[in-house]
């Protein structure tokens, strides 16, 4: 009889613990999305946004500062801090590590990160989401005037800056050089940012560089007013590049865009994106997206490249990367996407 009573007590205890465990699991599950959202909040309950931009002489950096100012003024309960970085690749790596929760990137680098290819092989970033497709990021090949370089293959054995480590510019340089059956071993490569390029060019320490940015880019303005000029990529190699990398497309920099530029320059371009983690609160992403497009005239007055930003193109060229639901909600409201 006593043995039977013990068995009953043990059975009741096991059942109680099981129910307690189920209840705890249910609570954890129901609170998980709330905890994800809180991960982005500061102690005072504000959404804290650490925004990775680019190098100080590119377009990303001033664009990021302009957007941060607008968002801090126009969107309640957010605190946006823009930060200089080496741009696309580094921004996505820092987002994956949780050090940033917003960043600029080109679509080509974003494609690799989302799908776990090239620089992101074996570590796909499936939790990234797009807020907007922005303006074209144009590959601008500059050469020192005294170098006598007129085509890409003439960079063999010459001093060349492909871009900073962790930048989309470096990735694009590799893609362009490969179309000429070249790689970084064929040039005297120096991996630095746009600011250093202008100094190196002035001091005749390099013969050329690739600047990937919206036009007009301040680095190219500085180079072309002093020691450099733009050169084109010929149509045959543009076709080869765009076939291999379908997110790239032919782009013409109109004559007179820069000082001393007497003719059109042909090159390749790709779209720029703003991205965030998928767990950023939907309502806040909606408000950030809305504030950006409602203040587009302010952005355009500060950033020349933003003249090519258009709401109707905000969901173009995403290369299969999902929009954040908050951004998607706004674009459906404005008729950019079908409801």
Short characterization:
InterPro entries: TRAP_TAXI. By secondary structure, this protein is an alpha/beta fold.
Give the fraction of residues assigned to helices. Answer: 40-55%
- Rounded mean pLDDT is 89
Number of strands: 10
CATH fold field value of the largest domain: D-Maltodextrin-Binding Protein, domain 2
InterPro entries: TRAP_TAXI (IPR011852)
Biased composition (Basic and acidic residues): 35-47
Region (Disordered): 26-47
Protein name: C4-dicarboxylate ABC transporter substrate-binding protein
Question: Which features does this protein show?
Answer:
339 residues; D-Maltodextrin-Binding Protein, domain 2; 2 domains; alpha/beta; 11 helices; TRAP_TAXI; 40% helix
What does the model show?
By secondary structure, this protein is α/β, with parallel strands linked by helices. The protein is 40% helix and 19% strand. The chain has two domains: 47-134 and 273-333, D-Maltodextrin-Binding Protein, domain 2 (3-Layer(aba) Sandwich), CATH 3.40.190; 137-270, D-Maltodextrin-Binding Protein, domain 2. The chain has eleven helices and ten strands. Strands 1, 2, 3, 4, 5, 6, 7, 8, 9 and 10 form a ten-stranded mixed β-sheet that branches. It is globular and about 55 Å long. It starts with a helix and ends in a 6-residue tail after the last helix. Residues 10-37 have low confidence and may be disordered.
SSE order and pairing:
Layout: H1 2-38, E1 47-52, H2 60-74, E2 78-83, H3 88-96, E3 102-106, H4 107-115, E4 128-144, E5 159-161, H5 168-179, E6 188-189, H6 194-202, E7 208-213, H7 218-224, E8 228-230, H8 235-244, E9 249-253, E10 265-277, H9 282-294, H10 296-302, H11 325-333
Parallel strand pairs: 1-2, 1-3, 5-6, 5-7
Antiparallel strand pairs: 3-10, 4-7, 4-8, 4-10, 9-10
């Amino acid at each position: 009889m006593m043995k039977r009573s013990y068995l009953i007590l043990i059975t009741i205890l096991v059942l109680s613990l099981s129910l307690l465990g189920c209840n705890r699991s249910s609570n954890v599950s129901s609170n998980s999305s709330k905890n994800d959202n809180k991960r982005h909040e500061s102690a005072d309950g504000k959404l804290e946004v650490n925004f990775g931009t680019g190098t100080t002489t590119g377009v990303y950096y001033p664009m990021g500062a302009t957007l941060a100012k607008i968002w801090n003024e126009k969107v309640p309960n957010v605190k946006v801090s823009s930060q200089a970085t080496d741009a696309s690749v580094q921004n996505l790596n820092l987002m994956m590590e949780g050090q940033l929760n917003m960043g600029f990137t080109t679509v080509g680098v974003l494609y690799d990160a989302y799908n776990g290819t090239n620089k992101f092989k074996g570590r796909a970033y499936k939790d990234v989401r797009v807020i907007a497709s922005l303006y074209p990021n144009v590959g601008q090949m500059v050469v020192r005037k005294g170098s006598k370089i007129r085509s890409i293959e003439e960079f063999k054995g010459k001093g060349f800056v492909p871009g900073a480590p962790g930048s989309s510019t470096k990735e694009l340089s590799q893609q362009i050089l490969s179309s000429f059956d070249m790689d970084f071993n064929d040039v005297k490569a120096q991996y630095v940012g746009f600011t250093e390029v202008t100094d190196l060019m002035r001091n005749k320490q390099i013969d050329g560089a690739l600047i990937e940015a919206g036009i007009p880019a301040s680095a190219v303005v500085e180079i072309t007013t002093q020691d450099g000029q733009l050169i084109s990529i010929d149509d045959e190699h543009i076709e080869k590049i765009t076939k291999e990398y379908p997110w790239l497309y032919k782009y013409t920099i109109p004559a007179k865009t820069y000082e001393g530029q007497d003719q059109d320059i042909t090159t390749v371009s790709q779209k720029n994106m703003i991205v965030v983690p998928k767990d950023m609160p939907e309502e806040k992403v909606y408000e950030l997206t809305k504030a950006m497009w409602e203040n587009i005239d302010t952005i355009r007055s500060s950033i020349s490249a933003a003249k090519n930003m258009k709401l109707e193109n905000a969901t173009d060229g995403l290369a299969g990367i999902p929009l954040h639901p908050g951004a998607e909600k706004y674009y459906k409201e404005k008729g950019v996407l079908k409801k």
